[in-house]
Amino acid sequence: MNAFGIDYGRALSVVCLRDGRGPRARTRLVGDGFRASIPHAVSAPLSPPALDEPLLWGSRALETKAGIAALRPTDSASGPWLEQPGAVLFWRGLMRRLTAYIGRVKPLPSNGYEILVAVPTENLTRTPEDVKSLCREAGFEVVTVVPAPHALLCRWMMEAMVMPWGNGSRTVASVCVGDDSVSVCAYRVTMRGTQLPQVTASSRCFSISECGGAWWTTRLLQEVAERWRETPDIGGEMALRDAATEFGARLSRAAENEQVEWEGPLAERMFEVLRLSRRECQDWPEVAPLRRQLPDILRQAGQAVNGNGRLDLVLIGGVGAMWPFASEIASTVGPIWQSGFPLEDVARGAACWPEAGESNTMLHLDGSPSGFEMAAFPASSASEPLALEMGMFPASDLPLESFGNVEAGVETDFSGFVSESGSADSEEEAPPEELEEEVEDDIPPSQRWRLN
Asked: In a 10 Å sphere around its CB, with 0-12 CB exposed, 13-18 middle and 19+ buried, how is residue 168 labelled?
Protein backbone atom coordinates (compact mmCIF):
# COMPACT_ATOMS: atom_id res chain seq x y z
CA MET A 1 0.00 0.00 0.00
CA ASN A 2 1.23 3.49 -0.90
CA ALA A 3 0.38 6.64 1.04
CA PHE A 4 -0.07 10.33 0.26
CA GLY A 5 0.78 12.56 3.22
CA ILE A 6 -0.69 16.07 3.09
CA ASP A 7 0.32 18.91 5.40
CA TYR A 8 -2.85 21.02 5.12
CA GLY A 9 -2.55 24.53 6.51
CA ARG A 10 -4.17 27.91 6.07
CA ALA A 11 -2.30 29.40 3.13
CA LEU A 12 -0.62 26.40 1.52
CA SER A 13 -0.26 22.63 1.47
CA VAL A 14 2.68 20.27 1.11
CA VAL A 15 2.14 16.79 -0.36
CA CYS A 16 4.42 13.74 -0.26
CA LEU A 17 3.98 10.28 -1.79
CA ARG A 18 5.44 7.31 0.07
CA ASP A 19 5.96 4.29 -2.18
CA GLY A 20 5.74 1.02 -0.27
CA ARG A 21 6.43 0.25 3.37
CA GLY A 22 9.45 -0.07 5.62
CA PRO A 23 12.13 2.36 6.82
CA ARG A 24 13.76 2.49 3.38
CA ALA A 25 10.59 3.16 1.40
CA ARG A 26 10.95 5.93 -1.15
CA THR A 27 9.24 9.26 -0.43
CA ARG A 28 8.75 11.92 -3.09
CA LEU A 29 7.61 15.52 -2.82
CA VAL A 30 4.56 16.26 -4.99
CA GLY A 31 4.11 19.91 -5.92
CA ASP A 32 1.59 21.55 -8.22
CA GLY A 33 3.92 21.48 -11.22
CA PHE A 34 5.41 24.87 -10.36
CA ARG A 35 6.25 24.83 -6.65
CA ALA A 36 7.05 22.32 -3.94
CA SER A 37 4.45 23.89 -1.64
CA ILE A 38 1.00 24.39 -3.14
CA PRO A 39 -0.61 27.80 -2.53
CA HIS A 40 -4.26 27.69 -1.55
CA ALA A 41 -5.94 29.38 -4.49
CA VAL A 42 -8.39 28.39 -7.21
CA SER A 43 -9.92 30.35 -10.05
CA ALA A 44 -13.02 28.90 -11.68
CA PRO A 45 -14.38 30.07 -15.05
CA LEU A 46 -17.95 30.47 -13.79
CA SER A 47 -19.48 32.75 -11.19
CA PRO A 48 -20.60 31.24 -8.92
CA PRO A 49 -18.08 28.47 -9.66
CA ALA A 50 -19.39 25.03 -10.52
CA LEU A 51 -17.78 22.07 -8.80
CA ASP A 52 -17.56 20.03 -12.00
CA GLU A 53 -16.00 22.75 -14.18
CA PRO A 54 -12.28 22.99 -15.05
CA LEU A 55 -10.38 25.41 -12.85
CA LEU A 56 -7.01 27.01 -12.40
CA TRP A 57 -5.48 25.62 -9.25
CA GLY A 58 -2.54 26.36 -6.95
CA SER A 59 0.25 28.42 -8.49
CA ARG A 60 -1.52 28.79 -11.85
CA ALA A 61 -4.46 30.53 -10.17
CA LEU A 62 -2.07 33.22 -8.92
CA GLU A 63 0.40 33.46 -11.79
CA THR A 64 -2.20 34.36 -14.43
CA LYS A 65 -4.66 37.19 -14.89
CA ALA A 66 -7.36 34.87 -13.64
CA GLY A 67 -5.65 35.14 -10.28
CA ILE A 68 -7.29 38.55 -9.84
CA ALA A 69 -10.56 36.77 -9.05
CA ALA A 70 -9.00 33.73 -7.38
CA LEU A 71 -10.73 32.20 -4.37
CA ARG A 72 -8.32 32.20 -1.43
CA PRO A 73 -8.40 31.83 2.36
CA THR A 74 -9.57 34.95 4.16
CA ASP A 75 -7.61 36.73 6.87
CA SER A 76 -10.63 36.79 9.19
CA ALA A 77 -10.36 33.08 10.09
CA SER A 78 -7.59 30.79 11.30
CA GLY A 79 -6.79 27.11 11.00
CA PRO A 80 -6.91 25.01 7.81
CA TRP A 81 -8.75 26.41 4.80
CA LEU A 82 -12.38 25.30 5.24
CA GLU A 83 -14.41 28.14 3.69
CA GLN A 84 -16.70 27.19 0.83
CA PRO A 85 -16.70 27.06 -2.13
CA GLY A 86 -12.97 27.70 -2.40
CA ALA A 87 -11.80 24.89 -0.12
CA VAL A 88 -13.73 22.10 -1.86
CA LEU A 89 -12.60 23.42 -5.24
CA PHE A 90 -9.02 23.25 -4.02
CA TRP A 91 -9.46 19.62 -2.97
CA ARG A 92 -11.00 18.80 -6.35
CA GLY A 93 -7.96 20.32 -7.99
CA LEU A 94 -5.73 18.26 -5.70
CA MET A 95 -7.61 15.10 -6.70
CA ARG A 96 -6.93 15.89 -10.37
CA ARG A 97 -3.27 16.59 -9.64
CA LEU A 98 -2.68 13.35 -7.71
CA THR A 99 -4.58 11.32 -10.31
CA ALA A 100 -2.36 12.71 -13.06
CA TYR A 101 0.79 12.26 -10.96
CA ILE A 102 0.33 8.51 -10.47
CA GLY A 103 -0.67 7.82 -14.08
CA ARG A 104 -4.38 8.63 -14.36
CA VAL A 105 -5.25 6.35 -11.47
CA LYS A 106 -7.37 7.80 -8.68
CA PRO A 107 -5.65 7.77 -5.27
CA LEU A 108 -8.15 5.43 -3.62
CA PRO A 109 -7.66 2.42 -1.30
CA SER A 110 -8.99 0.13 -4.01
CA ASN A 111 -6.07 1.26 -6.18
CA GLY A 112 -3.51 0.85 -3.39
CA TYR A 113 -3.34 4.42 -2.04
CA GLU A 114 -4.11 5.84 1.39
CA ILE A 115 -4.69 9.54 2.12
CA LEU A 116 -3.33 10.97 5.39
CA VAL A 117 -3.93 14.65 6.19
CA ALA A 118 -1.97 16.41 8.94
CA VAL A 119 -3.73 19.42 10.48
CA PRO A 120 -2.85 22.00 13.16
CA THR A 121 -4.08 21.26 16.68
CA GLU A 122 -5.94 24.53 17.15
CA ASN A 123 -9.40 22.91 17.07
CA LEU A 124 -9.21 19.12 16.94
CA THR A 125 -12.84 18.75 18.02
CA ARG A 126 -14.13 20.13 14.70
CA THR A 127 -11.30 20.34 12.17
CA PRO A 128 -10.88 16.59 11.39
CA GLU A 129 -14.55 16.11 10.49
CA ASP A 130 -14.61 19.31 8.44
CA VAL A 131 -11.54 18.20 6.49
CA LYS A 132 -12.99 14.74 5.91
CA SER A 133 -16.18 16.33 4.59
CA LEU A 134 -14.19 18.40 2.09
CA CYS A 135 -12.28 15.34 0.96
CA ARG A 136 -15.44 13.29 0.43
CA GLU A 137 -16.97 16.06 -1.68
CA ALA A 138 -13.79 16.12 -3.76
CA GLY A 139 -13.90 12.37 -4.43
CA PHE A 140 -11.52 10.99 -1.79
CA GLU A 141 -13.26 7.96 -0.31
CA VAL A 142 -11.29 7.29 2.88
CA VAL A 143 -9.16 9.92 4.64
CA THR A 144 -7.32 9.77 7.97
CA VAL A 145 -6.73 13.11 9.71
CA VAL A 146 -3.66 13.20 11.96
CA PRO A 147 -2.57 15.93 14.43
CA ALA A 148 0.50 17.61 12.95
CA PRO A 149 2.80 16.91 15.96
CA HIS A 150 2.01 13.17 15.71
CA ALA A 151 2.93 13.27 12.02
CA LEU A 152 6.29 14.92 12.73
CA LEU A 153 6.99 12.32 15.42
CA CYS A 154 6.32 9.54 12.89
CA ARG A 155 8.77 11.18 10.49
CA TRP A 156 11.48 11.08 13.15
CA MET A 157 10.66 7.54 14.35
CA MET A 158 11.00 6.09 10.86
CA GLU A 159 14.43 7.70 10.53
CA ALA A 160 15.39 6.41 13.98
CA MET A 161 14.97 2.86 12.66
CA VAL A 162 17.54 3.46 9.92
CA MET A 163 19.92 5.57 12.03
CA PRO A 164 19.39 4.13 15.54
CA TRP A 165 19.51 6.38 18.59
CA GLY A 166 20.34 3.49 20.92
CA ASN A 167 18.05 1.97 23.52
CA GLY A 168 16.20 3.35 26.51
CA SER A 169 13.45 5.83 27.22
CA ARG A 170 13.41 9.38 25.86
CA THR A 171 11.15 12.38 26.35
CA VAL A 172 10.60 13.89 22.92
CA ALA A 173 8.62 17.03 22.06
CA SER A 174 7.24 17.75 18.59
CA VAL A 175 6.92 21.37 17.44
CA CYS A 176 5.11 21.85 14.13
CA VAL A 177 5.47 25.37 12.79
CA GLY A 178 2.60 25.97 10.38
CA ASP A 179 1.72 29.03 8.37
CA ASP A 180 -0.62 30.63 10.93
CA SER A 181 -0.12 28.63 14.16
CA VAL A 182 2.33 26.38 16.00
CA SER A 183 1.30 22.95 17.33
CA VAL A 184 3.13 21.20 20.19
CA CYS A 185 2.95 17.80 21.87
CA ALA A 186 5.35 15.75 24.04
CA TYR A 187 5.86 12.00 24.20
CA ARG A 188 7.62 9.35 26.24
CA VAL A 189 9.32 7.10 23.68
CA THR A 190 11.13 3.81 24.22
CA MET A 191 13.99 3.39 21.76
CA ARG A 192 14.58 -0.19 20.58
CA GLY A 193 17.60 -0.12 18.30
CA THR A 194 16.57 -0.72 14.71
CA GLN A 195 12.97 -1.51 15.67
CA LEU A 196 10.18 1.05 15.54
CA PRO A 197 10.27 3.20 18.72
CA GLN A 198 7.33 2.63 21.06
CA VAL A 199 5.32 5.56 22.43
CA THR A 200 4.37 4.90 26.06
CA ALA A 201 2.76 8.26 26.90
CA SER A 202 1.76 11.50 25.22
CA SER A 203 0.65 14.88 26.51
CA ARG A 204 -2.34 16.77 25.23
CA CYS A 205 -1.76 18.87 22.12
CA PHE A 206 -1.05 22.58 22.56
CA SER A 207 -1.48 25.39 20.03
CA ILE A 208 0.05 28.87 19.69
CA SER A 209 -1.98 31.15 17.43
CA GLU A 210 -1.17 34.33 15.50
CA CYS A 211 2.32 33.25 14.53
CA GLY A 212 3.88 31.06 11.86
CA GLY A 213 5.37 31.17 8.40
CA ALA A 214 2.63 33.30 6.81
CA TRP A 215 2.85 35.89 9.59
CA TRP A 216 6.62 36.21 9.26
CA THR A 217 6.48 36.28 5.46
CA THR A 218 3.90 39.08 5.57
CA ARG A 219 6.04 41.06 8.00
CA LEU A 220 9.13 40.70 5.82
CA LEU A 221 7.23 41.78 2.70
CA GLN A 222 6.02 44.84 4.58
CA GLU A 223 9.66 45.71 5.22
CA VAL A 224 10.34 45.18 1.51
CA ALA A 225 7.38 47.31 0.38
CA GLU A 226 8.53 50.23 2.50
CA ARG A 227 11.68 50.43 0.39
CA TRP A 228 10.24 50.61 -3.13
CA ARG A 229 7.50 52.67 -4.70
CA GLU A 230 6.34 50.22 -7.38
CA THR A 231 3.52 47.79 -6.70
CA PRO A 232 4.37 44.35 -8.15
CA ASP A 233 2.19 42.78 -10.83
CA ILE A 234 -0.38 40.19 -9.78
CA GLY A 235 1.79 37.49 -11.29
CA GLY A 236 4.71 38.51 -9.09
CA GLU A 237 3.09 37.81 -5.72
CA MET A 238 4.28 34.22 -5.48
CA ALA A 239 7.78 35.20 -6.56
CA LEU A 240 7.86 37.61 -3.62
CA ARG A 241 6.62 34.95 -1.21
CA ASP A 242 9.12 32.41 -2.54
CA ALA A 243 11.89 34.95 -2.01
CA ALA A 244 10.63 35.62 1.53
CA THR A 245 10.76 31.91 2.37
CA GLU A 246 14.30 31.72 0.98
CA PHE A 247 15.21 34.77 3.08
CA GLY A 248 13.95 32.92 6.18
CA ALA A 249 16.09 29.90 5.30
CA ARG A 250 19.17 32.09 4.81
CA LEU A 251 18.42 33.77 8.12
CA SER A 252 18.43 30.32 9.77
CA ARG A 253 21.91 29.62 8.44
CA ALA A 254 23.32 33.01 9.46
CA ALA A 255 24.90 33.96 12.77
CA GLU A 256 22.75 35.80 15.29
CA ASN A 257 24.01 39.28 14.43
CA GLU A 258 24.90 38.62 10.78
CA GLN A 259 23.07 40.89 8.34
CA VAL A 260 21.13 39.05 5.62
CA GLU A 261 20.34 41.08 2.51
CA TRP A 262 17.11 40.90 0.53
CA GLU A 263 17.89 39.53 -2.94
CA GLY A 264 14.35 38.93 -4.15
CA PRO A 265 12.24 40.71 -6.81
CA LEU A 266 12.68 44.47 -7.21
CA ALA A 267 15.78 44.50 -5.01
CA GLU A 268 17.55 46.61 -7.62
CA ARG A 269 14.74 49.22 -7.49
CA MET A 270 14.87 49.80 -3.76
CA PHE A 271 15.92 53.23 -2.59
CA GLU A 272 17.42 51.53 0.48
CA VAL A 273 18.89 48.03 0.73
CA LEU A 274 17.03 45.78 3.19
CA ARG A 275 19.35 44.01 5.61
CA LEU A 276 18.13 42.19 8.72
CA SER A 277 19.72 39.95 11.34
CA ARG A 278 18.16 37.15 13.37
CA ARG A 279 18.38 39.28 16.49
CA GLU A 280 16.45 42.11 14.81
CA CYS A 281 13.77 39.75 13.50
CA GLN A 282 13.34 38.17 16.94
CA ASP A 283 11.91 41.52 18.05
CA TRP A 284 9.08 41.44 15.50
CA PRO A 285 5.62 41.51 17.15
CA GLU A 286 4.75 38.50 14.97
CA VAL A 287 7.39 36.45 16.80
CA ALA A 288 6.30 37.55 20.29
CA PRO A 289 3.57 34.86 20.83
CA LEU A 290 6.10 32.12 20.09
CA ARG A 291 8.83 33.65 22.23
CA ARG A 292 6.41 34.19 25.12
CA GLN A 293 4.60 30.83 25.10
CA LEU A 294 6.76 28.10 23.55
CA PRO A 295 9.28 27.53 26.40
CA ASP A 296 6.55 27.18 29.04
CA ILE A 297 4.44 24.92 26.81
CA LEU A 298 7.41 22.64 26.16
CA ARG A 299 8.12 22.33 29.88
CA GLN A 300 4.46 21.68 30.69
CA ALA A 301 4.14 19.07 27.96
CA GLY A 302 7.35 17.39 29.11
CA GLN A 303 6.19 17.37 32.73
CA ALA A 304 2.98 15.67 31.66
CA VAL A 305 4.86 12.62 30.38
CA ASN A 306 7.88 12.38 32.68
CA GLY A 307 7.03 14.40 35.79
CA ASN A 308 10.07 16.69 35.65
CA GLY A 309 9.65 18.66 32.41
CA ARG A 310 13.08 17.77 31.08
CA LEU A 311 13.23 17.14 27.33
CA ASP A 312 15.79 14.87 25.70
CA LEU A 313 14.94 16.07 22.20
CA VAL A 314 12.76 18.69 20.50
CA LEU A 315 11.68 18.00 16.92
CA ILE A 316 11.15 21.08 14.73
CA GLY A 317 9.37 20.86 11.38
CA GLY A 318 6.67 22.33 9.17
CA VAL A 319 6.32 25.02 6.53
CA GLY A 320 7.24 27.76 9.03
CA ALA A 321 10.31 25.91 10.30
CA MET A 322 12.31 27.33 7.41
CA TRP A 323 12.50 30.43 9.62
CA PRO A 324 14.88 30.24 12.62
CA PHE A 325 12.55 31.36 15.39
CA ALA A 326 11.08 28.07 16.67
CA SER A 327 14.39 26.19 16.74
CA GLU A 328 16.20 29.08 18.39
CA ILE A 329 13.57 29.50 21.12
CA ALA A 330 13.14 25.75 21.71
CA SER A 331 16.90 25.28 22.05
CA THR A 332 16.68 27.01 25.44
CA VAL A 333 14.62 24.04 26.69
CA GLY A 334 16.26 21.02 25.05
CA PRO A 335 18.44 19.71 22.19
CA ILE A 336 17.02 20.26 18.70
CA TRP A 337 16.46 17.82 15.85
CA GLN A 338 15.66 19.30 12.45
CA SER A 339 16.01 17.78 9.00
CA GLY A 340 17.69 19.49 6.08
CA PHE A 341 14.33 20.39 4.50
CA PRO A 342 11.79 20.96 7.29
CA LEU A 343 9.10 22.26 4.92
CA GLU A 344 8.17 18.71 3.90
CA ASP A 345 8.65 16.89 7.23
CA VAL A 346 5.03 17.02 8.43
CA ALA A 347 3.74 15.73 5.09
CA ARG A 348 6.40 12.98 5.07
CA GLY A 349 5.42 12.05 8.61
CA ALA A 350 1.72 11.90 7.73
CA ALA A 351 2.57 9.43 4.95
CA CYS A 352 4.35 7.30 7.59
CA TRP A 353 1.29 7.15 9.87
CA PRO A 354 0.05 3.72 8.66
CA GLU A 355 3.39 2.21 9.70
CA ALA A 356 4.55 4.30 12.66
CA GLY A 357 1.34 5.75 14.06
CA GLU A 358 -1.33 3.07 13.87
CA SER A 359 0.83 0.54 15.71
CA ASN A 360 1.47 3.02 18.54
CA THR A 361 -1.82 2.90 20.42
CA MET A 362 -0.78 5.75 22.72
CA LEU A 363 -1.03 8.20 19.79
CA HIS A 364 -4.64 9.36 19.70
CA LEU A 365 -6.03 10.98 16.57
CA ASP A 366 -8.14 13.35 18.66
CA GLY A 367 -5.00 14.76 20.31
CA SER A 368 -5.99 13.60 23.79
CA PRO A 369 -3.31 12.59 26.33
CA SER A 370 -2.47 8.96 26.98
CA GLY A 371 -0.44 6.81 29.32
CA PHE A 372 -1.55 8.47 32.58
CA GLU A 373 -3.10 6.81 35.63
CA MET A 374 -5.69 9.58 35.85
CA ALA A 375 -8.48 7.39 37.20
CA ALA A 376 -6.74 7.24 40.59
CA PHE A 377 -7.31 10.96 41.13
CA PRO A 378 -10.99 12.01 41.12
CA ALA A 379 -11.70 15.31 39.39
CA SER A 380 -14.35 17.56 40.89
CA SER A 381 -14.40 20.37 38.33
CA ALA A 382 -13.99 20.92 34.60
CA SER A 383 -10.62 22.60 35.09
CA GLU A 384 -9.04 19.72 36.96
CA PRO A 385 -8.32 17.17 34.19
CA LEU A 386 -5.52 19.41 32.86
CA ALA A 387 -4.18 19.86 36.40
CA LEU A 388 -4.17 16.10 36.85
CA GLU A 389 -2.34 15.68 33.56
CA MET A 390 0.29 18.19 34.64
CA GLY A 391 0.79 16.40 37.98
CA MET A 392 -1.04 19.07 40.02
CA PHE A 393 -3.92 18.21 42.33
CA PRO A 394 -6.43 20.41 44.17
CA ALA A 395 -5.55 20.58 47.86
CA SER A 396 -9.11 19.72 48.87
CA ASP A 397 -8.85 16.33 47.16
CA LEU A 398 -5.46 15.31 48.53
CA PRO A 399 -5.62 12.62 51.22
CA LEU A 400 -4.32 13.83 54.56
CA GLU A 401 -1.67 11.13 54.50
CA SER A 402 -0.02 13.01 51.63
CA PHE A 403 1.35 15.50 54.15
CA GLY A 404 3.60 12.96 55.87
CA ASN A 405 3.22 12.81 59.66
CA VAL A 406 0.08 14.95 59.85
CA GLU A 407 -2.73 12.96 61.41
CA ALA A 408 -6.42 13.74 61.38
CA GLY A 409 -7.64 15.50 64.52
CA VAL A 410 -4.13 15.87 65.98
CA GLU A 411 -2.63 19.30 66.56
CA THR A 412 0.85 19.42 65.07
CA ASP A 413 3.71 21.72 66.04
CA PHE A 414 5.23 23.38 62.94
CA SER A 415 7.55 25.67 64.90
CA GLY A 416 10.58 23.75 63.78
CA PHE A 417 9.97 24.86 60.20
CA VAL A 418 10.09 28.61 60.99
CA SER A 419 13.11 30.60 62.14
CA GLU A 420 13.04 33.00 65.08
CA SER A 421 12.70 35.94 62.69
CA GLY A 422 9.47 34.46 61.35
CA SER A 423 10.85 33.56 57.91
CA ALA A 424 11.43 30.12 56.51
CA ASP A 425 14.72 28.45 57.38
CA SER A 426 17.40 29.15 54.81
CA GLU A 427 18.72 25.62 55.00
CA GLU A 428 16.64 23.46 52.72
CA GLU A 429 16.34 19.75 53.06
CA ALA A 430 18.26 17.88 50.40
CA PRO A 431 15.92 16.67 47.65
CA PRO A 432 15.13 12.96 47.71
CA GLU A 433 16.89 10.72 45.26
CA GLU A 434 15.19 10.31 41.93
CA LEU A 435 13.10 7.16 41.93
CA GLU A 436 13.02 7.01 38.17
CA GLU A 437 16.03 5.33 36.66
CA GLU A 438 18.14 7.76 34.68
CA VAL A 439 18.73 6.80 31.07
CA GLU A 440 22.32 6.80 29.96
CA ASP A 441 23.18 9.13 27.15
CA ASP A 442 23.80 6.45 24.58
CA ILE A 443 23.11 8.53 21.48
CA PRO A 444 25.71 7.38 18.97
CA PRO A 445 28.33 9.92 17.85
CA SER A 446 27.02 9.75 14.28
CA GLN A 447 23.78 11.34 15.50
CA ARG A 448 25.20 14.11 17.65
CA TRP A 449 25.47 16.52 14.76
CA ARG A 450 21.68 16.69 14.81
CA LEU A 451 21.65 18.08 18.33
CA ASN A 452 22.14 21.85 18.21
From this structure: middle
